[in-house]
Amino acid sequence: MAGTNSERPLLAEGPVIILVNPQLGENIGMVARAMANFGLAELRLVEPRDGWPSDSARSAASKADHVIDGVQVFDRLEDAVADLNFVYATTARSRDGFKPVRGPTVAADTLRARHRAGERSGILFGRERWGLKNEEVALADEIVTFPVNPAFASLNIAQAVLLMSYEWMKSGMEDESATPFQAVEQTPATKENLFGMFGHLEEALDARGYFRPADKKPKMIDNLRAVFTRRAMSAQEIHVVRGVISALDRYTRKNPRGQDGGDER
Amino acid sequence: MAGTNSERPLLAEGPVIILVNPQLGENIGMVARAMANFGLAELRLVEPRDGWPSDSARSAASKADHVIDGVQVFDRLEDAVADLNFVYATTARSRDGFKPVRGPTVAADTLRARHRAGERSGILFGRERWGLKNEEVALADEIVTFPVNPAFASLNIAQAVLLMSYEWMKSGMEDESATPFQAVEQTPATKENLFGMFGHLEEALDARGYFRPADKKPKMIDNLRAVFTRRAMSAQEIHVVRGVISALDRYTRKNPRGQDGGDER
Question: What class of enzyme is it (chains A, B) (predicted)?
Answer without folding.
Answer: transferase
